[in-house]
Design brief:
The complex is a heterodimer of chains A (253) and B (806).
Chain A lengths: L3 E12 L6 E12 L3 E6 L5 H8 L7 E6 L2 E2 L8 H9 E4 L11 H11 L4 H15 L14 H13 L5 E5 L7 H18 L2 E6 L2 H4 L4 E6 L2 E7 L5 H18 L1
Parallel strand pairs in A: 3-8, 3-9, 6-7, 7-8
Antiparallel strand pairs in A: 1-2, 1-4, 4-5, 9-10
Helix pairs in contact in A: 3-4, 3-5, 4-5, 5-6
Chain B lengths: L4 H10 L2 H40 L4 E4 L10 H8 L4 E14 L4 E8 L3 H7 L9 E5 H7 L6 E4 L2 E9 L8 E5 H4 L11 E6 L5 H11 L4 E4 L4 H49 L4 H41 L12 H28 L2 H8 L7 H25 L2 H33 L6 H10 L3 H39 L4 E5 L9 H9 L4 E10 L2 E5 L2 E11 L10 E5 H7 L6 E8 L4 E14 L6 E4 L11 E8 L2 H14 L3 E5 H43 L2 H9 L4 H35 L10 H28 L2 H5 L5
Parallel strand pairs in B: 3-7, 4-6, 13-17, 14-16
Antiparallel strand pairs in B: 1-8, 1-9, 2-3, 2-8, 4-7, 5-6, 10-18, 10-19, 11-13, 11-18, 12-13, 12-15, 15-16
Helix pairs in contact in B: 1-9, 2-8, 2-9, 2-10, 2-19, 8-10, 8-11, 8-15, 8-19, 9-10, 9-19, 12-13, 13-14, 13-15, 13-21, 14-21, 15-19, 15-21, 15-22, 19-22, 21-22
Classes of the chains: A alpha/beta (253), B alpha+beta (806).
């Protein structure tokens, strides 16, 4: 049986505002298994990015617990533990890539390993491996401004996985990309799941992207409203139907 | 936001308040620097001349005959001179040694009338009544008189009306009315000398020519040609040229490095506006509005700040340095405003030209150029730097060898430009070398910081060079001041053989017994050694039918140690000319006034030859029969304890009141005061410049760091702790500073060596002051960036990631 990598229990988050406090997350609970690719789908403002930010210790919940490999992560919302958590346990891929634009592709990928104190030779070997895996070996010396969006996102993925984190979080990684490039990126994620048993939690509003995952969690209004296990057949149709149901019930409400 | 171009321009500015503030600061600092330097350059020569006037008086020309000239300056001649065109005021001066007081001490006495010229020259304030005499303070103490006391001056009973401050060199002078001195003048003599003041626009040299036409034998002293004045003005001009260059470069750098970040934003705006269809003219207006607001704020504030700074500092300097109020010149508003206007136009060009260029190329090209981290055509840039530096060296050497300043100074400037062009490459190599050489051994965060800094060649260069120039200015400015100061000291030490000198104001008329005086002095535990000199006498060396004039002098000194009473020490020059050597016997003669002839005095043996003696000087013992006037003229004292020695000497003066005590330390103090008065303004200007460049460089660094907030946030997302980010910031800032200090020290030394080579004197480095500047910068940097680092690293990550700088 596949081991559980992530357990989230009763996670809540409210953004305080004098006139309109925003309850971004309401008692969210779910779990992720090793080598599982889970997509979180929902409309804008449904709380999906907030969830990812909390799981990446970029933001702090008001309530709830998070367990990684069965161990509670109570202290990850305080520095410097937060940074150490991000370094060792999480790889984050952003919609806007967020690369260090003054560094080359290979240097950007190398940053987490440098921070982890790896030897230079080990860093070089690992970075080469990731560059090859991502098909970027020829572009290693290029700076981000010299690369396409898809190439930049692949560098960002490379940076996220180079340290072999147990959990990869991707926030709308294809949001700035066209269909074909998005597909390339998804192939990278799938490749990592298959070859490296990478556990991936990906946020998207795109049903086609969600259909590539193993499981889809439907978010609405800060809650998980539904869940779908992808079977590999007509997943997109099912996802669209479920999404429509949720959004229509929202309108109705 | 108002829905107009103006509104859009201003709201774009408002959205980047911090960035705009830094840009305004850099323009403010640059304006202060330029205004300060310009005001100083315009006024420096005048201020220095004014301080010399304080010392030498208002007279532009002094006319007299040489002491051994037989002629006298008659009334007719004087009238012709004072009526020459260009002569505005004049004063006749008669001077002689007159015997004053009970001891009949011969004192250099000036007979003149009171006007602005004589008052400024001789430093008295009141009128000179025919019954009055003025004395300097030291002379009054010697004569034991005070204001109101009567005093015998060559048989005239005069009343002491004023005490004058002691002049440098401890010269005793007395001043009486011209009419009282007239009886002592030679027949037909109207004046020993004439003091002349020229009209404001009159040139001195034509007047000098006209005076020579009246009498070619007249000796004409031009104050402006006084060697001390000349050498100081030469030094001043050299230093102004070099300092102006350094200030201009650092000003340009400060503006460019800060505006570069602003320009990035502006170009980014242009790219976006152009891509959505904005016309060139519309973009031009937006840029103009934005740059106008920033530049206006910066230059106006800069003009105000420079006036306040200079005036405030002048006030402080008057109190601290005791500078005369009129000697200095604070920045005045007209100069400040004109300079600010010129700076405004220049900065507008700085900002508008790159912005205008961006309107001529396609938006993507703008974006591409905006992201450029390195210099275009790097190799060419490096070669250009090398070529420039080499050209400068050749020009400098050519100018130096041929004494051609018109080639030398441009060569120096070109060499400096070449050095500055090469500096970015040196900085890059330094960082590369650090990464390669020490690498991960510095710690993974430091390594990451260095790797991150490495590609940012232009940004690194700006930061390091602006700090380097600050340090170079500090090294150059402070070291030249201490070199000038040390030269003064050296000059004084050459005049003072020992720390304490006694001078016998009665000269040859004194009856002090040399032996007993020496024994008295050596009897004090506070005095280690005593040397003495007697009067210079007149004798002749009778050799091969020739009568060679010699000036024997009795001394107590190591040069005559072991000398017998019938032995002499002659000069090396005399020995060489007449083929004499130690052991030779020579015939010495003496002048007989009655017979008007030189008669033999006796045979003496040459005991030694000294290369240090002037040609005709001959040393002998005090008991040598040739010492017919065994007066003690001067005594040099080497004390064990100077303070105690001075107290002991005070008691000796009870017995020998004619002895004047002078100490090297007192002379040094007096010379120091003069030095500070002349150079005090330079000290002020240098302080303002160093302070401003420090502020500008640090502000530029801070701007750079703050513009990278998003990047620091990204580092936090991949696991750098907040303290790691803070450390990263501190390492960057300290690395820039460290490199800047090293390069700046080297550049300052290079400039100094090249400038001082023009006037070869040993350089005295002001290491403490330079160290203080470097330490001050280090402290400020650490404090500023520790705080900045803390603030940046403690902000919420998501908010920081939204900060898009450069």
């Amino acid at each position: 049986m596949s081991q559980t990598v992530l357990e989230v229990e009763g996670l809540s988050k409210t953004y305080a505002h004098p006139a309109h406090p925003v309850r971004a997350l309401k008692n969210v609970s779910f779990s992720l298994k090793k080598a599982e690719f889970v997509a979180i789908m929902g409309t804008s403002g449904s709380g999906k990015s907030t969830l990812l930010h909390i799981l990446g210790a970029l933001d702090k919940p008001d309530a709830g617990t998070i367990k990684l490999h069965g161990r509670p992560c109570d202290d990850i919302f305080r520095e410097p533990e937060a940074s150490r958590y991000r370094l060792k346990h999480v790889g984050f891929v952003f919609q806007a890539f967020h690369l260090l634009k003054d560094l080359s592709a290979e240097d950007n990928i190398a940053v987490p390993l440098i921070l982890q104190g790896e030897r230079e030779s080990a860093i070089k070997a690992r970075v080469d491996e990731v560059l090859r895996m991502l098909g970027l070996a020829a572009l290693r010396r290029h700076r981000p401004v010299e690369l396409s969006g898809g190439q930049q996102q692949r560098i960002a993925i490379g940076r996220a996985i180079v340290g072999n984190p147990p959990l990869l979080l991707a926030d709308e990684p294809t949001g700035n990309l066209d269909h074909n490039t998005s597909q390339e990126i998804l192939d990278v994620f799938l490749n990592m799941r298959d070859k490296r048993e990478q556990t991936i939690l990906l946020v998207t509003h795109d049903p086609a992207v969600a259909a590539s995952a193993d499981r889809v969690l439907f978010f609405h209004d800060g809650e998980i409203r539904d869940e779908y296990q992808c079977r590999g057949k007509r997943d997109l149709d099912h996802i669209l139907k479920m999404f429509k149901t949720i959004t229509e019930s929202r309108r109705g409400a | 936001m108002r829905k107009t171009l103006w509104g859009m321009a201003l709201s774009l500015l408002k959205a980047n308040r911090l960035l705009i503030s830094f840009s305004i600061i850099s323009i403010l600092v640059s304006t202060v620097l330029v205004t300060t330097m310009l005001t100083y350059s315009l006024n420096a020569e005048r201020a220095m001349e004014q301080s010399f006037r304080e010392r030498f008086g208002e007279a532009d020309i002094m006319v007299s005959y040489a002491p051994d000239h037989p002629g006298v300056l008659t009334r007719e001649k004087a009238d012709r001179i004072v009526s020459l065109p260009g002569v505005e005021a004049s004063a006749p001066v008669l001077n002689r040694f007159l015997h004053i007081g009970e001891m009949d001490a011969p004192v250099w006495t000036i007979g003149t009338t009171a006007n602005d010229l004589t008052r400024s020259t001789y430093k008295f304030t009141s009128d000179i009544a025919p019954s009055a005499v003025m004395l300097n303070e030291e002379l009054a103490r010697f004569l034991k008189v005070e204001i109101g006391d009567e005093l015998d001056v060559e048989g005239m009973t005069l009343r002491v009306s004023e005490m004058i401050a002691d002049l440098q060199g401890n010269i005793s002078i007395a001043i009486i009315h011209y009419d009282r001195m007239a009886p002592f003048a030679e027949e037909g003599e109207y004046a020993s000398g004439l003091l002349l003041k020229l009209a404001k626009d009159a040139e001195a040299l034509p007047v000098v020519r006209m005076i020579r036409e009246i009498d070619g034998d007249l000796r004409i002293d031009l104050v402006e040609q006084n060697e001390l004045v000349q050498s100081n003005l030469r030094a001043l001009n050299s230093y102004i040229i070099v300092l102006s260059f350094l200030v201009l470069v650092v000003t340009a750098l400060l503006v460019l490095s800060n505006l570069e970040i602003l320009l990035y934003k502006l170009r980014h705006q242009i790219a976006i506006l152009r891509s959505i269809g904005a016309a060139t003219g519309q973009i031009g207006r937006i840029m103009l509005i934005q740059s106008f607001v920033i530049n206006l704020a910066g230059t106006v504030l800069g003009a105000g700040a420079s006036v306040l700074a200079m005036n405030g500092l002048h006030g402080a300097a008057e109190r601290v340095f005791h500078m005369p109020a009129a000697a200095g010149h604070g920045a005045d508003w007209p100069v400040a405003l004109v300079t600010a206007a010129a700076c405004f136009l220049l900065y507008q060009l700085f900002m508008l030209i790159p912005a205008w260029r961006s309107t001529r190329i396609l938006p993507l090209k703008i974006a591409e150029e905006n992201e450029r981290l390195d210099f275009r055509h790097k190799k060419r840039h490096r070669l250009r730097g090398l070529g420039t530096a080499l050209t400068g060296i050749v020009m400098y050497m050519f100018g130096y060898v041929n004494g051609n300043y018109a080639v030398l100074f441009p060569g120096l400037i070109i060499l400096l430009i070449g050095s500055l062009l090469l500096m970015p490459h040196a900085v890059e190599r330094a960082i590369q070398g650090t990464v390669k050489g020490i690498g991960l051994r510095l710690g993974r965060l430091v390594y990451l910081t260095l790797r991150h800094m490495l590609p940012q060649v232009k940004r690194n260069a700006f930061a390091v060079i602006s700090i380097a120039l600050t340090v170079a200015i500090a090294v150059f400015g402070t070291t030249l001041l201490s070199t000038l100061d040390a030269n003064n000291h050296r000059f004084l030490k050459e005049r003072f053989e020992k720390p304490i000198m006694l001078h016998n104001r009665l000269g040859g008329q004194s009856a002090i017994d040399a032996h007993s005086l020496r024994e008295t002095l050596l009897g004090f535990a506070s005095i280690r050694d005593v040397e003495m000199e007697g009067a210079s006498l007149l004798n002749y060396l009778l050799l091969n039918g020739e009568e060679i004039r010699i000036a024997p002098k009795a001394v107590y000194s190591p040069l005559v140690e072991g000398l017998k009473d019938d032995e002499l020490v002659i000069s090396g020059e005399m020995a060489a000319r007449y083929h004499l050597q130690a052991g030779d016997e020579i015939m010495i003669g003496y002048p007989d006034e009655a017979l008007q002839d030189v008669l033999p005095a006796g045979v003496y043996r040459i005991a030694g030859v000294s290369g240090d003696l002037p040609f005709d000087e001959v040393l002998m013992t005090w008991s040598n029969p040739l010492n017919v006037h065994p007066a003690v003229i001067s005594v040099s004292i080497d004390p064990n304890d100077e303070k105690q020695a001075l107290a002991d000497l005070a008691s000796v003066r009870e017995t020998y009141p004619e002895l004047q005590i002078r100490t090297l330390s007192e002379e040094w103090e007096r010379a120091r005061e003069g030095f500070v008065q002349r150079w005090g303004i330079f000290i002020i200007v240098l302080s303002v410049i160093i302070g401003c460049t420090m502020a500008g460089a640090l502000s530029g660094l801070l701007n750079q760091i703050l513009s990278k907030r998003k990047e620091f946030a990204i580092l936090r997302t991949v696991g750098v702790t907040p303290s790691g980010v803070a450390w990263n910031i501190l390492v960057q800032a300290c690395l820039y500073l460290g490199l800047g200090i090293v390069f700046g020290g080297l550049l300052g030394l290079l400039v100094l060596v090249l400038v001082v080579a023009l006037d070869p004197t040993p350089i005295t480095f002001a290491w403490p002051t330079v160290g203080l500047v470097a330490a001050g910068m280090l402290l400020l940097t650490v404090a500023t960036f520790a705080i900045a680092g803390r603030r940046i690293s403690s902000g919420p990550i998501l908010r920081e990631m939204a900060m898009d700088g450069k």
